[in-house]
Amino acid sequence: MKEFKGKVAVVTGAASGIGLALTEKCIAEGMHVVMADIEQAALEAAAEKLRSGGSNSILAVKTDVSVASEIEKLKDQTIQEFGAVHLLFNNAGVGGGGNTWMSTKKDWDWVLGVNLWSVIYGLQTFVPQMISQDTECHVVNTASVAGLLGGTTNGCYSVSKHGVVALTESFYADLQTEGAKVGTSVLCPGFVNTRIFESGRNRPADLTDDIAPPAMTPEQEARVEMFKKILEQGMQPAEIADIVFEAIRNDQLYILSHEAFGPMIEARARNITTGNNPTEVNLFAE
């Protein structure tokens, strides 16, 4: 997909971070945009600000992406408003969970629901529509560099992002087999200046544990603070959006934003093929 003007994009997690930057990039490319987010006030504020800048072809739809029926509603409203969808960003995501065996079922349900099941629902719901249009379309699924590395983040997040990578690889193969006019990419960004550490603000009450999580050790607290500071100094979401659109134009499956992670990804692949146990990966090394 190389031409975007006048086409229709759907962006989940569109009210902030990478999702908002992708929305702004779509508008700059002359697209109509459907913004989806669970945080209604932030969604409406973002949409209104973009409309006030002269971009009126924006539809804001409050959506809990972890619920299949809400993704179906999102698709229906998109088609009703614009008649088609050409570019889908399954971008919504949260950070959460902790120690692998101490994360609760609610931790797993929340993180997998938003980070992985939402992508599955997005493909099931939007791809048949895209194929039926018989025009060039593209789907971008947001994972993380954590989806290409092993043991670098908590289990819930890591599993969800590895799942998105594997899902997109399978989706790519299926599209090739079917000869569909739909392309796909998996976005695996490194450190980006977003609010992912504040994901809990949107955690549903029914997926919140009644008991407080165990207190972190001083070492864990120090690691979290370091990670927050690195994110604050990370790549700006607008830079990610530019990288993504270049990759779409090049029909590129894997989208990475930080070259520094290349050797870590290669080391993991070597460990797998040689049967070596991994050594600790230091994400904070220069």
Could you list some keywords that capture this structure?
single chain; alpha/beta; 7-stranded parallel beta sheet; globular; 286 residues
Structure, explained:
- The structure is a single chain.
- By secondary structure, this protein is an alpha/beta fold.
- It has helices at residues 17-28, 40-52, 68-82, 105-133, 155-178, 218-232, 237-249, 262-274, and strands at 8-12, 32-37, 58-62, 87-90, 137-142, 182-188, 254-256.
- The protein has a 7-stranded parallel β-sheet with strand order 3-2-1-4-5-6-7, sandwiched between helices.
- α1 packs across α7 (237-249) and α4 (105-133) packs parallel to α5 (155-178).
- The relative contact order is 0.14.
- The model has no long low-confidence stretch (mean pLDDT 91).
SSE map:
Blueprint: E1 8-12, H1 17-28, E2 32-37, H2 40-52, E3 58-62, H3 68-82, E4 87-90, H4 105-133, E5 137-142, H5 155-178, E6 182-188, H6 218-232, H7 237-249, E7 254-256, H8 262-274
Parallel strand pairs: 1-2, 1-4, 2-3, 4-5, 5-6, 6-7
Structure at a glance:
This protein is an alpha/beta fold and 286 residues long. It has helices at 17-28, 40-52, 68-82, 105-133, 155-178, 218-232, 237-249, 262-274, and strands at residues 8-12, 32-37, 58-62, 87-90, 137-142, 182-188, 254-256.
Q: Biggest sheet, strands in spatial order? A: 3-2-1-4-5-6-7
The rounded distance between the terminal residues' Cα atoms is 36 Å
Element string (H = helix, E = strand): EHEHEHEHEHEHHEH
Rg, Å, rounded: 19 Å
Share of helix, binned: 40-55%
